[in-house]
Amino acid sequence: MTAPSSRAELLPAFAGAADEIGGYFAGLDDRTFWTGTAEQWGAAHHLDHLIRSNRPVAGGLGAARDRLQPLPPEHRYRSSAEIEAEYRAALSSGARAFGRWLPQPEGTQTELVERYRASLTGVSDALTGWTDAELDAWAMPHPVLGVLSVREMLLFTLLHNRHHEGGVRARLTPVASPTGTGDNALP
Description:
Shape: globular
Order of helices and strands: HHHEHHHEEHEE
Strand order of the largest sheet: 1-2-3
Oligomer: single chain
Strand content: 5-15%
């Protein structure tokens, strides 16, 4: 599957992610959803982290352009694959969420899933006010990846959401043991 790139491709990609990822988390049983700690994140922690990460992107997109920095002329545009490789390398080097991005899930599972969907809908709604040219003209800071174009931030946001969904799925998928029985990573 080719990563979305244009504004016209990004809009349905965010809607699809809200539905698919939100649906996955909504479908987890209560015990599985809430299992986890601040040190060993469970599904609720990952979802709250995504809400905390998506909302500033929506806020930045909704801000007046004069509140953003123009993209430096020397900025080298990165593809979705390059952004993902850079992100994975940063994680491998020890980069972790901190400060306002650390999860503190509150409310019910349904409320968290709705807040998650709303966070991606907020990004999509704010994106409607942008042109493709503007996505490449303005900068947004990322705490690990540095200065990104708005388009790169949108690509990162999609891959970040999929990364956390994939991490939860992997932890919850039974792993075959030598005896042939499955063993879930989360109790």
